[in-house]
Amino acid sequence: MEAEDRISLTIGRSRLEIVMGDITRQETDAIVNAANSRLTPGGGVSGAIHRAAGAGLREECKKLGGCKTGEAKITKGYNLPARYVIHTVGPVFSHASRERNAELLRKCYESSLGLAIEHGIKSISFPAISTGIYGYPMEEAADIAVRTIADFLRKHDEIKVVRMVLYGRDAFEVHKRAMKKLSEEIDKISYNP
Fold this sequence. Notes:
7 strands, alpha/beta
């Protein structure tokens, strides 16, 4: 990975990173699966995670009884480098429900991070939740993701590294811009003579 494919921001005693890469290869304690409500293998990120983890993940997911939008559940990582997979169900985007969509997307990140703390997880990798087949506009989703994670890390320093892992260049650049904007806002807040 080249230096321009990674950006990070220190928040308290934690670090938020934006990287371009494959979430199934991340060596963080946990990775997050952008799951469907049945927690069954699908396409996109979910399908890639299930394929890389192996059949054990599918079998454990069957026992969880699904997952509601905005909530999160945890399983073992099986054949993945990560010890755990945290499954969260993002909202299907609708212009008519824009505020509710944003609230549910924030809940996905908060629920996943809260579950990570409950399980002593110190590092976690997220995909861009709901931006694939669920149709969430990338710019809005990136802004919600980086702000929600940053807000969480300001209150909780148990997690040391939160990494957003973006598969494509366009998604990476959008998230990089969202984090740079957040960084500039933090600098303005920090420097208040």
